[in-house]
Structures are given as structure tokens and as C-alpha cells.
């Protein structure tokens, strides 16, 4: 008699979107490769969990409000013991984790840039005044309006297929997605161009995948240690510390990017933008000998500086 539940050694929880599924499979494959005891067919189960963010498709995420739109239901399954680890796009993970949960693993980070996608134009600069760009991200909308005040932005959600159809129908002239997502879906050709970080600073942790587990689960923790990328973890830690410092402000568009320089130092850039694009504040920190602790300290410091400079007016606008 074969009973699959006997053979399952590890249960991965994930959202069901094509991108989330690709990420979960990547983690399963890496674990199976690193640990012979997980390599047998069926040793790692993948459980799909629907989140609030997956159910509400007709509104901007900022409008639905609250934190953890893509994580809450998965957190509950993890803490309730229905799954042993959860794979997340770190961009969607709130900066404060529920009690008893840890984030021991960040995979090697993908391309951090946003993709410009249009059937008519090669870049924002080519677009005539009044052209319409669809995005559900307050950060992308605000960054576009800040740099190109003559362009129009509208709220626009959906997967790659839906967006391409809407572009073809002419509902919008361009849309944006993360390069990382397109690459993981094996659809890099969908990007008309990658937008340089200087032109559009990415979201905190864009392009990074993180894995959460129960704090007490040493078995899973040990299995995962082979998968962590320390450099990516330090970068994400710096950016998330900045976000956490600014957090009361969940409607303020925030962007941040930590990068290693050729000399080994880390450069952290953080920006906040008014939703209508009318004002933008930037700051930067250089981190010598970056590690998790000094990256977090630099991020907190940068976030606090912007919070102070922006004041309550900017932050809750
Ligand atoms: N919920 C949106 C989301 N969360 C993570 C990604 C992309 C992948 C990544 O940044 O790691 C996306 C889609 C997008 O912005 O295009």
C-alpha cells in the first residue's frame, strides 16, 4: 500500500499564481538537490493557499489596505502546522513577522528592476503627453508622475496574460511589471525594456524570494541553511529596515535599493514620493563591511531621516 501522507517529509505553502508556483517549485528543486532524503518523489508537498490579495482583483492594493494581503492566510497555515515553510516574494512580506515565525532564508536575488511594457513605445521618454500607463503599484504610479508629469496613470492589475490583452485592446499605452517575475516565468521577452534603477528605484526587496518557518522547527531550519544567500539577505535587511522605520505610512510610496559596490561596500538608496508625484525625497547611506546588523542600522537610520524630513503631512498624505 502506498500512502502519500507517509512519504511526505516537508510541506511547502504558497500562493497559487503562476509566479508563486514557479517560486515554490524552485525551492522544492533546490531542497531536493541539497538533501538526498528530500529527493524522493512526493517527499516535498506543495500546498496552494489563497490569500486576500488573490481574491480582490479589481482594486489597487493600497486601496484594500492593511498589511500582509498576500501573506496572512499563509502565515496562519504555517503557525497552525498545516505547512512547514512558506515561499514568498519578499516585496509582499510585512516588515514585522507574526510571533513565533522566522525568516531564515533569502534566495539569491534576481533582477531588481522594473520592466517597461508597451506595444507602441520603447520608453517613458518616447510617450506623448497624455499617454496612459496602467499599474496597481502606488510606488510605480508616483515615480512616473514625479518624473513625467504629463503622463497619466490608472490602476491596473492582472497577470501577464491579462495585461498583454489589455495592452492589445488599447486600454492603456504601457504597463509595468518586475523583471524578476518575468524572468522566473520564463517570459523575459514580455519586457520592452528594463528600467534603470536610477530612473525608477525598485520596491523594497523586489526580486528577492524569502522563506518563513516556525521558530521552533529545527529540522526545516537545518534543511534550509543550504539555500540562504548571505549577500542577498544583507541587502534585503537594509531595505526592509528602512521600510519598517517609515511603516506607519502604508500609503506613502516607498522605494529602496541596497547594492554592493565593487570595493565591497554597500550603497543603500531610499526614496519616498507623494502619491501625486509632486514631491520626492531621497537619501543614501554607505555601509563599510556590510553585515546583517550594520545593514539594519543603516536602513533604520535612512528611514528615520526621511520620516523626519517628510513630516506627518508627507507621510500620511
Ligand atoms: N504582488 C506583486 C508582486 N510581488 C512580487 C512580484 C514580482 C517578483 C519580485 O519582485 O520578486 C510581483 C509582481 C510585480 O511587481 O510585477
Automatic annotation (TrEMBL):
Q: Which PROSITE patterns match?
A: PORPHOBILINOGEN_DEAM (PS00533)
Question: Which InterPro entries has this protein been placed in?
Answer: HemC, Porphobilin_deaminase_cofac_BS, Porphobilin_deaminase_N, Porphobilinogen_deaminase_C, Porphobilinogen_deaminase_C_sf
Additional remark text: The porphobilinogen subunits are added to the dipyrromethane group.
**E.C. code:** 2.5.1.61
User: What family does the entry list?
Assistant: Belongs to the HMBS family.
**Where are the annotated segments for Disordered?**
292-317
Boundaries of every Porphobilinogen deaminase N-terminal domain copy: 10-221
Which NCBIfam families does this chain map to? hemC (TIGR00212)
What single Pfam family name could you report for this chain, choosing any that match? Answer: Porphobil_deamC
Cofactors:
dipyrromethane
Q: Which reaction does it catalyse?
A: 4 porphobilinogen + H2O = hydroxymethylbilane + 4 NH4(+)
**Subunit details for this protein?**
Monomer.
The Low complexity compositionally biased stretches are: 292-302
Pathway field of the UniProt record reads: Porphyrin-containing compound metabolism; protoporphyrin-IX biosynthesis; coproporphyrinogen-III from 5-aminolevulinate: step 2/4
Briefly state the protein's biological role.
Tetrapolymerization of the monopyrrole PBG into the hydroxymethylbilane pre-uroporphyrinogen in several discrete steps.
Record key words, sorted = Porphyrin biosynthesis, Transferase
Annotated ranges, domain Porphobilinogen deaminase C-terminal: 234-307
Q: What is this protein called?
A: Porphobilinogen deaminase
> According to the record, how does the cofactor bind?
Binds 1 dipyrromethane group covalently.
- Database matches in Gene3D superfamilies: Periplasmic binding protein-like II, Porphobilinogen deaminase, C-terminal domain
Amino acid at each position: 500500500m502506498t500512502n502519500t501522507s507517509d512519504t511526505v517529509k516537508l510541506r511547502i505553502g504558497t500562493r497559487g499564481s503562476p509566479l508563486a508556483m514557479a517560486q515554490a517549485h524552485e525551492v522544492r528543486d533546490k531542497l531536493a538537490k541539497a538533501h538526498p532524503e528530500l529527493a524522493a518523489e512526493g517527499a516535498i508537498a506543495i500546498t496552494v493557499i489563497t490569500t486576500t490579495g488573490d481574491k480582490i482583483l479589481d482594486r489597487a492594493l493600497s486601496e484594500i489596505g492593511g498589511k500582509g494581503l498576500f501573506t496572512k492566510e499563509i502565515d496562519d497555515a504555517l503557525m497552525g502546522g498545516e505547512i512547514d515553510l512558506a515561499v514568498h516574494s519578499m516585496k509582499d512580506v510585512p516588515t514585522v513577522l507574526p510571533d513565533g515565525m522566522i525568516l531564515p532564508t533569502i534566495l539569491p536575488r534576481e533582477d531588481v528592476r522594473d520592466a517597461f511594457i508597451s506595444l507602441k513605445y520603447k520608453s517613458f521618454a518616447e510617450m506623448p503627453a497624455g499617454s496612459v500607463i496602467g499599474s496597481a503599484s502606488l510606488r510605480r504610479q508616483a515615480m512616473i508622475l514625479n518624473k513625467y508629469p504629463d503622463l497619466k496613470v490608472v490602476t491596473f492589475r492582472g497577470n501577464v496574460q491579462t495585461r498583454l490583452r489589455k495592452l492589445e485592446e488599447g486600454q492603456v499605452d504601457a504597463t509595468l511589471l518586475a523583471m524578476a517575475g518575468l524572468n522566473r516565468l520564463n517570459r523575459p521577452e514580455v519586457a520592452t525594456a528594463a528600467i534603470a534603477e536610477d530612473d525608477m528605484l525598485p520596491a523594497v526587496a523586489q526580486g528577492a524570494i524569502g522563506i518563513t518557518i516556525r521558530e521552533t522547527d529545527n529540522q526545516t531550519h537545518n534543511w534550509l541553511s543550504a539555500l540562504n544567500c548571505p549577500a542577498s539577505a544583507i541587502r534585503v535587511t537594509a531595505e526592509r529596515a528602512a521600510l519598517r522605520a517609515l511603516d506607519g505610512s502604508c500609503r506613502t510610496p516607498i522605494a529602496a535599493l541596497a547594492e554592493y559596490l565593487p570595493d565591497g561596500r554597500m550603497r543603500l538608496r531610499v526614496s519616498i514620493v507623494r502619491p501625486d508625484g509632486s514631491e520626492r525625497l531621497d537619501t543614501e547611506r554607505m555601509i563599510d563591511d556590510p553585515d546583517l546588523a550594520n545593514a539594519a542600522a543603516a536602513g533604520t537610520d535612512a528611514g528615520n531621516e526621511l520620516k523626519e524630513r517628510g513630516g506627518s503631512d508627507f507621510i500620511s498624505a
